[in-house]
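Before a computer can learn anything about folding, someone has to put a protein's shape into writing. The three-dimensional part falls to structure tokens, numbers that each stand for a local backbone shape. The protein below has been through that process, and both of its lines are reproduced in full.
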Amino acid sequence: MFSSNPTPLDIRFRLFGFPCRISAFFWLGAFFLGNTTVSRPGIPLAGLAIWVGSMLLSILVHELG
């Protein structure tokens, strides 16, 4: 199992009794991936926020499954 050292920028919480930690690198990666796939001239910044939220939700559901 891959385990990185916690940083002060990590977000920690419990979900259904399971400890969760979201690394700052997740937000950075999700932003860059969403920026290249979602961000177009006609799409507002809200589209990028929806993309990042969708990534977070899908990864949490996958990991809890």
User: Anything to note?
Assistant: Residues 34 and 51 are 6 Å apart (CA to CA).
